[in-house]
Design goal:
The protein is mainly beta. The protein is 12% helix and 31% strand.
């Protein structure tokens, strides 16, 4: 099992001062193996904070990021799952599933993580899984007039099964929902059959997660 934090569009300090305190209490070191960030981190201090949660951090460049060192996209493999990460401003119209699907095919990934809309989404489409963690700080966006709900996601990857937990701060309380995606893979030979995967049924973050290796990107 691999637990991956999906987060982005923090816009600190330009549009938000910090992560919500209740999110910080959840995001403690030693529980998460990897972080995939959709960009718009915007300052070095926030990037360094992410590295305190897990050493294996991948950040793609958002349209407001100060560091030009972040790549425009990243591909991460947790066999048999291939995950692509982009900020999302490359897709026109913004958040359009057909545009995202075309990008996923181009990147040859099973799961495409994107941001930019500041709105959470997790949906299976055209045989692939698309996840947008929203804005972790609830930062405002010019394309939406109402208040933005702060959110992030955790992916529990167990072989060909990806269980995504979305954490949203609604009226001061953290609400959790679960969405499952299963990649269709060729049936293994009898001698290589695997036991059934146990998926957590509760909406809480899995416990007793080993520490992550100190790998991933290093910038600044």
């Amino acid at each position: 099992m691999v637990l991956v934090l999906i987060i982005g569009d923090l816009h600190i300090p330009h549009r938000a001062h910090d992560l919500p305190a209740k999110f910080r209490k959840l995001l403690v070191p030693g529980k998460i193996q990897q972080i995939l960030c959709t960009g718009n981190v915007c300052d070095r201090e926030t990037y360094e904070y992410l590295r305190t949660i897990a050493g294996d951090v991948y950040v793609v460049r958002g349209d407001y990021d100060e560091s030009a060192s972040f790549p425009p996209s990243a591909t991460i493999v947790h066999t048999p799952i291939r995950i692509g990460v982009v900020h999302g401003h490359q897709c026109v119209p913004t958040g359009d599933l057909d545009a995202l699907s075309a990008l996923a095919r181009q990147m040859d990934v099973d799961v495409l993580v994107s941001g930019h809309t500041h709105t959470f989404q997790a949906i299976e489409y055209d045989g692939r899984f698309f996840v947008n963690p929203g804005s972790a700080t609830g930062a405002w966006t010019g394309s939406y007039n109402g208040e933005v709900t702060p959110s992030f996601a955790l992916m529990d990857i167990q072989g060909a099964v990806v269980v995504t937990y979305v954490y949203q701060l609604v009226e001061g309380e953290v609400r959790v929902e679960k969405i499952e995606y299963r990649k269709e893979v060729e049936a293994p030979k009898p001698a290589q059959s695997q036991s059934a995967t146990s998926i957590p049924h509760s909406g809480v973050m899995p416990q007793n997660i080993p520490s992550s290796p100190q790998t991933g990107q290093t910038f600044w």
